[in-house]
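Consider this:
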Amino acid sequence: MEQTALRPKPMPGQGPGDGADSGPGARRPHAAPPRRGRRLTTLLLALLTGLVLVLTGVGLGTMGATVIAMSRLAELRHQAGPGAPGSPASSPRPGSSAAPSPSPSPPPAAVATLGVEAVDAEKPGALIVGVHVPGPGYTAGLVRGDVVLAFDKTRVDSAADLARAVAGADPGHQAVLTVRHRSGGYQQLTVVPGVVT
C-alpha cells in the first residue's frame, strides 16, 4: 500500500506553491481593487447631475410662466376685440401701402381692481384663491378661501360677475362686499377699489 503525504491546504489567496510570498507587497486577488480617484469621480458626477436637475427645473418653471403670461395676453386681446390697438387685425400688413391714420386715441380709462384672484365657486359666488399684498382686497380683510356673494348691490354668481362688477365701479369710492368665510360665517366688508398701474 502506498503512503500519501499529508499536505496542508493553501491559505486563501495563495496558490499551492506560494507559501513564502505573504509579505505586504504581495498581490491578493481576493481583495477589492484600490480606489484611486473613485471618490472624485463620484463627486463630479453628483455635481453634474445636480446641475442638470436644477437647470431643467428652472427652464421648466420659466417656460411655464411664459406660457401662462402668453395665454393671459391672448385672453386680454380676445376680450379687447379685433379693433383694439396692438391686436393682429389692426396692424397694417407689410406689403400694403396704406399708412395708419394718425387719429389721436383717448387715454385709457382707469379700471378698478380689488387685487384678488378669483375662480367660480361650487355654489353661487366667486371663490378667492389669491389676495395680493398690498392691495384693496387685503386692506378690506379678504383672505384665501372666502366666497364673494355680492359687490355693492350687484349679485355675484361667478368670478366673471365679480370682474364685471369691479370693472364698473369707480376707483377710490367705497363699496360693500358680502362674503361667506370658509368657516361658514357671513360678513360685509368695506373695500375701496384701486387702479391698475
Q: What stands out?
A: DSSP finds three helices and eight strands in the chain. Residues 50 and 159 are 42 Å apart (CA to CA). The chain has a mean pLDDT of 75. Strands lie at 112-113, 116-120, 126-131, 147-151, 154-155, 175-180, 186-191, 194-195.
